[in-house]
Write a structure and sequence with these properties.
- 58% of the residues lie in helices and 3% in strands.
- It is mostly helical.
- It has one domain (26-397).
- The strands form three sheets. A two-stranded antiparallel ribbon has the order 1-2. Strands 3-4 form a two-stranded antiparallel sheet.
- Strand 3 (287-288) and strand 4 (295-296) form a beta hairpin.
- The longest helix has 31 residues, at 2-32.
- The model has no long low-confidence stretch (mean pLDDT 93).
Amino acid sequence: MLMNAERSSRLKTESMTSACLLASVYLIYLFSNPHLTSYYDYTLRMAEALLAFRTGIDYSPPEWLNEMIPGDGRYYSAFPLGSVLSMIPAAIIRKAGMIGSFPGPVIAALIAAASALLLFKISGSYLDATWQRVLMAIFPVFGTWMWANLAFGGAWQIALGLAVLGQLGALYFILIRPRPFIAGLFFALAFGNRTEIILLAPVFIYLIYRGNDEIRKRWRSIDRFVIVPVILGIATLIYNHLRFGNIFDFGYAHIPGVLEEPWYEQGIFSIHAIPGNAYAMMLEPWERIGHSPYLVPSGFGGSIFISSPYLLAIFRSGATDRTLKIISWISILLLTGVLWCHGNTGGWQFSYRYAMELLPWAFLIMLESGRNRMRSYEIVLVVASIAINAWATYLFLRSGYFRLSG
């Protein structure tokens, strides 16, 4: 009876902590951006078109949506089908007259809250103290460039946020609470919003494979995992063909003027882009100016380690599960290789926004290298990372120094 009472108390504490974490992250993200709607609603417009059984809009978009692609009397976006499908609920709500403009920052707050909850749940397999689990859970959402970029709430940032959430959900429902079909749904959410994440399909399949002792259970679980991603993949190829006449054409090169931009001289993807991306992500410092606020990020890149010093913990030695740590590093290297080959380093951003999709794997590596508790210096680095990103978020979203110009 005492054991049951203790377990009940622990579950109650877990539930209360989870609820408080959800509410706190949601409200802080919502407060971070003074504008609760976004002009950059590419995916919402495409979702509304899809509800009308069209792949594009049949009216001229506003001038600020300069990445819309004209063709055959309609306008299309370069966002993949998964990003469009993700906005179907918002499109239905707007069609019902319950919202007006694109509630991007609100959606971003929901993504951040859900991500923090999954991070908290995953950390429970590694850390004993609840407060340390909370601190680790809020690190990616408040102690990295994810905060300033996701809270901006444009279609690009929402897609990255959903890619993070999708990977976290897939990892949780494979490693912590095995549910292969639900894991497949989350994986589809991830690569549906950021196509390069499809490269990690073998990684997730291997994690499922090694998590089952019986051969029959292994293949049954893998079948359940892949069914939704395969359907989405086929649907995406059809969607591409209907828009651009080629199943492998996602439309990016069709954006007016994009191939005339200097960073795409060698093509959308090229090894020539690697030095610029590597510098922007790993080394680019903040700038000193002669007036307030004196020390500022550039607005077009910045070292992820300067922006988030606790991230250096990924280089610690040791692991509770060496194979999982190696797999996490392989995932980071695969995604980074693709990101660094992209001609544009990310445009308007704090630090290197594309690296948001690396955070689930960096989080796993940090947990794997830990020893059931956080040391004092780690706590200091997490607090410092949160302070740096709070300042950056203020500069980008609430101060007059940076304009909300996307």
